[in-house]
Write a structure and sequence with these properties.
Blueprint (H helix, E strand, L loop, with lengths): L8 E7 L2 E7 L15 H7 L2 E3 L7 E4 H14 L3 H12 L11 H20 L28 H6 L7 H4 L5 E8 L26 H10 L27 E7 L5 E9 L5 H11 L9 E6 L2 H4 L3 H12 L13 E5 L10 H4 L17 H9 L3 H4 L4 H48 L5 H17 L23 H16 L8 H23 L5 H28 L1 H14 L25 H6 L13 H7 L11 H4 L5 H37 L4 H34 L26 H6 L58 H56 L4 H24 L8
Length: about 900
């Protein structure tokens, strides 16, 4: 019913298509429940309009328009000013200055609308003095007391399982701390008394309590640093009313923790991290017992942590934010994987997520990812008043949490599948690696590892703690020693070769000549035209031609007759057939995949390089035209003939030796190169650094040459039927990934030469295709760690350390023994982390299902209570639908995880 005699009032209506003034006449009818006129603001809300002012509305905003404004701010970080300018131009592109200016009112209306929507979603009244953290969206996979925790743990404080010490991490909280110096606030005149509408109820610690803390806190004593002087320790430059923020997030799922952020008014100091932990951990104070804390400067921060916490509780225990009960959590302190290499050597292994028990595959860098998204707001928030700034930041952080909440089931399911696959791979790797150790040695290393894991939890033992994950410095040989040992091992292995014209000698010499031919082609191709270079080429050429002239008659006498007989036999069987290739009796070059020209691309596929015949010298073409035939050069139909079995078997033995030599050189070269790189890390001065750089370059060239030599041997073994049948990804037809058995040297092969004359010995899985990704060193030093290393499998070339036992120098053999020991410790740690990851993901999945089930039950209970309230009833029904959908998604996507309560 309208009052026809009432005078209409001009109200500026701001909607998503422009800004216009309309005459509005308010209804004077009485509300049947209150027997009073319906307030003007409520009348506008009933018509889908939101108030600019609440006493006497003269401007209003459509709820759809405010919703668009909020979503554009969240998705595209559009500021209120930009949105209002857009409305200006939408209304009048020619004279936008004639459009009514309601920008200030829009700021207030949008802020109130944003707060009201948050309270509606949290099912609380939009009032002041809300419960701490009640508006925050919590992580469903992290422990939430009273909502999703394992029932026995929540009752008793003890996890399931017999070994509480090793399983306590399953019911602990994993979180990270970090500072952000981009989220500043300008030092300009503004309302100092402005408080956020979300006061203490969202992601910032209670602003009143924190303001009291900032006003009265004593000057902090700067603790002497035992590590590098990071900016986070108070050495960075800063300025403004707010110089940045310190925040907390769960480190495994990237959810910002409720009451987990505070503003800085100067450099980042320990007291801010202390305060934010006291406020954010309050909900867990009497339930959880174990915390895994990641912080860029944990090595320094943890030293006096408990003393500072007790002092804060004593001084500020009267404030609502600060719990007064004793801090009884057991802390596991770590440094994020990205920041860890910046620490000194003594810090790295004691605070590494790679080695600490219970962290799984956590990397400790969740907040860095959050900051990278949040910083897009900094240009706008630094201009806002304190309360408005926090309201906007809380809304944005809440939206980020909601995004992750909606996808948490798919995320956990995908990670669980990957973790199980990685765990299986690591179990196979450690099993093969342990074949290189005696049982007693493995038991001793396991005991040493267990003792280290216990001692690293105790900060008092850190000073004397030794690093089992790094090669001992006193055992690292010099480059000269490494080079001399390689040459000595090679010469000793080939010493005493029989010069008689027998099959073994002819095949062996033929393989040597093929390698020498490839080396000579490379030398000619890289010739710098210098006089010394020309002499080297000529000498190498004469040596090659001399050995070739001596070898050819022996080949014609020992091998050629057998090859001719086998070829004639094949031609007789295939007489009249056109199926034989043009290259017959030789093997074609299809297996070399000549269409792939790039040397790097061929290395990635495990293929030897091809020579480009274009624009080459006469000498190069002369050497390239030389053919050195061996059984592996001929067609498989010839090799299958019974008369060829002995020849094929002898070449297999020689090629095995060639491959073993190349692998030994490759492994030793990789270790030498890695050792030199470690020495270079702490080296100072231009000349020493340049000298070591040249040595590293030479070693890298040797590694590349050894890899090429192995690939040539592998191609020959493949032709002889020795290798497994692989696809392009290195997977056998049975579906298993390459898993080579220990390789044998030439001498070892010759020991068993008479054991079998059949083609294709039983050790056909001994050698695998060597791709570029396989020819890498394993990590011997914490300074070489990288963020994605945990997801990389250990190269198959390090599954056998037989090459270490062939070294004659005791010092070098001791070094390789230490390398082998370090490799075991690192692989064991990686295996343990993947086991923990599988268990953590299983428990997180169960918590997620409980979480959505709990909220579904909550909304269902409210649904029956609110039958008389139409608006609340409809929203509650929507809440039930959403939580049911999320619960069903969690149980569907995570069906591989056993759901046991």
């Amino acid at each position: 019913m309208r009052d026809a005699s009432g005078e209409p009032r001009n109200v500026t209506i701001v909607h998503d298509h422009g800004i216009h003034e309309y005459p509005v006449r308010f209804c004077p009818c009485l509300d049947p429940e209150t027997d009073e006129p319906v307030p003007e603001p409520i009348q506008l809300i009933h018509f889908g309009l939101w108030l600019g002012t609440w006493k006497r509305p003269e401007s209003a905003y459509t709820i759809l328009g405010l919703r668009d404004h909020q979503l554009l701010g969240l998705q595209a970080q559009m500021s209120t000013h930009d949105y209002f300018e857009y409305l200006h131009r939408t209304t009048d592109m020619v004279c936008p200055e004639d459009v009514p200016d309601r920008y200030r009112e829009l700021i207030t209306a949008a802020r109130e609308f944003m707060f009201t929507r948050a309270t509606k979603r949290a099912d609380v009244e939009p009032t002041q003095e809300l419960e701490p953290g009640v508006l925050a969206v919590r992580c469903p996979a992290c422990p939430q007391p009273g909502i999703n925790m394992e029932p026995k743990y929540e009752k008793t404080g003890q996890p399931e399982g017999d070994d509480i010490y090793t399983m306590e991490y399953l019911d602990g909280l994993h979180y990270t701390i970090d500072g952000n110096f981009q989220q500043t606030q300008k030092n300009k005149p503004m309302d100092e008394a402005d408080e956020p509408l979300t006061l203490g109820a969202a992601y910032h610690a209670n602003e009143r309590d924190f303001k009291e803390f900032q006003r009265t806190r004593p000057r902090e004593k700067k603790e002497p640093t035992t590590c590098h002087k990071f900016g986070a320790m108070g050495y960075s430059r800063y300025g403004g009313r707010v110089t940045g923020t310190v925040g907390l997030s769960c480190s495994r799922h990237m959810f910002t923790l409720p009451m987990g952020s505070v503003d800085l008014d100067g450099p980042e100091a320990f007291c801010y991290a202390d305060w934010v932990q006291l406020t954010a951990l309050r909900p867990y104070w009497k339930t959880l017992r174990w915390l895994a804390v990641g912080y860029d400067i944990n090595c320094q921060y943890r030293i006096h942590f408990h003393e500072r916490i007790r002092e804060l509780q004593t001084r500020y225990g009267h404030l609502q934010s600060i719990p007064t009960d004793e801090f009884l959590f057991e802390l596991l302190s770590a440094v994020g994987k990205f920041h860890l290499p910046a620490h000194i050597k003594a810090c790295r292994f004691k605070f590494s997520y790679y080695y600490l028990r219970g962290v799984g595959m956590t990397d400790g860098e969740a907040l860095e990812r959050i900051w990278s998204i949040l910083n897009s707001l900094a240009a706008g928030t630094k201009e806002m008043t304190p309360g408005h700034r926090h309201d906007v930041l809380n809304d944005f952080l809440g939206d980020m949490n909601v995004h992750k909440l909606h996808s948490i089931a798919r995320t956990l399911a995908g990670r669980y599948q990957k973790a199980r696959k990685q765990l299986s791979t690591m179990e196979e790797t450690i099993q093969k690696l342990e074949e290189n150790f005696t049982v007693d040695k493995i038991v001793a290393m396991q005991a040493e590892e267990a003792q280290w894991l216990a001692d690293v939890r105790d900060l008092d033992k850190h000073k004397k703690l030794k690093n089992p994950y790094e090669v001992k410095e006193d055992k690292v040989p010099t480059t000269k020693e490494l080079l001399a040992e390689i040459a000595q091992a090679r010469s000793a292995e080939h010493e005493g070769s029989d010069a008689a014209l027998n099959v073994l000698h002819v095949v062996f010499e033929g393989v040597e000549l093929q390698s020498l031919r490839e080396d000579l082609l490379d030398v000619i191709e890289e010739n710098d035209e210098s006089e010394e270079g020309q002499k080297t080429i000529e000498q190498t050429r004469l040596d090659f031609l001399s050995r070739l002239a001596e070898w050819t008659p022996a080949f014609n006498l020992v091998i050629q007759p057998t090859l001719d007989a086998a070829a004639k036999e094949v031609l007789s069987e295939w007489k009249g057939s056109t199926s034989l290739p043009d290259a017959f009796p030789l093997r074609g070059d299809e297996h070399l995949q000549a269409n792939i020209k790039s040397k790097d691309e061929r290395a990635k596929r495990g293929l030897p390089p091809l020579h480009d015949r274009n624009a080459k010298s006469v000498l190069w073409r002369e050497i390239e035209s030389v053919v050195i035939p061996l059984p592996s050069s001929f067609h498989e139909l010839i090799l299958q003939k019974p008369s060829m079995k002995t020849l094929v078997n002898w070449e297999i033995k020689v090629r095995e030796g060639q491959a073993a030599d190349a692998l030994n050189d490759l492994r030793t070269g990789l270790i030498a190169s890695a050792t030199l790189k470690l020495a270079k890390i702490d080296m100072t001065g231009k000349r020493p650094t340049l000298r070591v750089g040249k040595k590293i370059h030479r070693k890298n060239n040797e590694v590349a040459a050894a890899a090429e030599e192995y690939r040539h041997a592998w191609v020959a073994l493949d032709a002889l039927g020795m290798t497994a049948d692989e696809d392009e990804e290195g997977t056998t037809k049975s579906g298993k990934t390459d898993a080579p058995e220990p390789d044998l040297s030439v001498s070892e092969s010759q020991e068993h030469a008479g054991a079998s004359t059949e083609m294709g010995p039983s050790t056909s899985r001994r050698y695998c295709r060597l791709r570029k990704r396989d020819a890498v060193p394993f990590i011997m030093h914490d300074g070489r760690e990288s963020m994605n290393r945990s997801k990389q499998t250990v190269s198959w070339i390090w599954e056998n350390f037989g090459f270490a036992y062939k070294q004659n120098d005791p010092k070098y053999q001791a070094f390789l023994e230490d390398v082998k020991r370090v490799h075991w410790f690192r692989c064991s740690a990686m295996l343990a982390r993947w086991r923990e990851e599988v268990r953590l993901l299983g428990e997180e999945t169960r918590r997620t299902v409980r979480y959505f089930g709990w909220f579904r039950g909550k909304w269902q209970a409210h649904r029956y209570v609110r039958l008389l309230d139409k608006c609340r009833r409809s929203y509650t029904a929507a809440g039930v639908g959403i939580e049911t959908e999320l619960w069903e998604a969690a149980t569907r996507d995570d069906n591989d995880v056993e759901m046991v309560d």
